Hints:
By secondary structure, the protein is an alpha/beta fold. The protein is built from 6 helices and 11 strands.
Amino acid sequence: MAELVFFSGTMDCGKSTLALQMDYNHRARGRGGVRFSRNDRAGGFRISSRLGLETDAVEVVDATDFWDEVVLRRTRGIRVDYLICDEAQFYSPAQVEQLARVVDEIDVDVFAFGITSDFRTRLFPGSQRLIELADRVQVLQVEALCWCGRRATHNARTVDGVMVMEGAQVVVGDVDMAGEAASTDAGHVPVVGYETLCRRHFMRRVTAHGANIMAQQDQLLPFEVDACLWHGAGDRTTVGDA
Length: 242
């Protein structure tokens, strides 16, 4: 019987890599599938992994109806046995319900991959609906790491290296830019980045950039200092829409 499976985890835990591997494995066994993604780091119509793997995909937009997508292909004689749905946290609850219907009524496997919660630790609407409807929710075993070496459990958004807790839920950024410092140029455009942190440093708002600054100040205190004590913390609390 077909299943709706949600593979979840933080950033950098290998979700897109697993999505591409599963697609390869199923195609190698003669199954036909369709790859979907939304807001991929490589741009539209792509699924990409930070390991360098990349392939084409159908871009999901607000008007996408997964039921229609499958029915249209099957009426044209295209074999559809499974769907790979990457960046599923960005799907709407209605689209997740369409995926469940595809599983139950057309017997198509759906493998969804996504982040569970946003930079404020709040569930994405798409992820919440997947948790509610999925036959299985599988947390990926590849552990992302905080800058301190502990297991990362939270996704943090940064603006010029400073962690923020307000702003639009979906803003395009880059994990490679999470630790970048602010420029002194008058026309500087704030750099939005993302970083995985352990709960301890997420609660203290200590990013890798903040930790580096504190280390450079040669602090001799026998305990960690809260991020709000270093210059620049809290200067940016909001960021505009992508």
